[in-house]
Design goal:
By secondary structure, the chain is mostly helical. The chain has one domain (6-113). Helices cover 59% and strands 5% of the residues. It has 5 helices and 2 strands, in the order H-H-H-E-E-H-H. The protein has helices at residues 6-30, 38-47, 51-78, 97-100, 114-118, and strands at residues 86-88, 94-96. Strand 1 (86-88) and strand 2 (94-96) form a beta hairpin. The chain is elongated and about 50 Å long.
Length: 123
């Protein structure tokens, strides 16, 4: 993990361990490289029957992944009084992720947000 401020260190881990791995797994299912239950594979193959459908399905899957990340961060941010996510940074400091950010969901977006900085761009 690169030396960023603790919140960005969490963001790098969150995006690489959740978003990037989930996108990679979907691509592997899509091209048949990893086995999943037959119904799921058949459904993906049927929905992705043409290049246009394949691209549209991929966009929907990737947008859904990002929506899930957003909702998870929103939950942390709005339940800070009953739910804490502590992160130990590379310098040994420990932060409460929700309290450290002035808008946790917003950390995902913009040209210097976590998705842009740490996301895999698989095309």
């Amino acid at each position: 993990m690169t030396q960023y401020d603790p919140l960005d260190q969490f963001g790098e881990l969150f995006i690489s361990a959740v978003r990037n791995r989930t996108q990679w797994a979907y691509r592997q299912i899509e091209n048949g490289s990893i086995r999943v239950e037959k119904n799921r594979h058949d459904t993906i193959q049927a929905l992705a029957s043409s290049p246009e459908h394949k691209e549209k399905l991929r966009q929907i899957v990737e947008a859904t992944i990002d929506d899930c990340l957003h909702e998870f961060l929103f939950m942390l941010e709005n339940n800070y009084d009953t739910l804490e996510l502590l992160f130990k940074a590379s310098d040994g400091s420990v932060i409460n992720v929700a309290e450290t950010s002035d808008g946790l969901c917003g950390e995902l977006y913009t040209e210097d947000g976590w998705i842009e900085k740490f996301g895999s761009h698989l095309d």
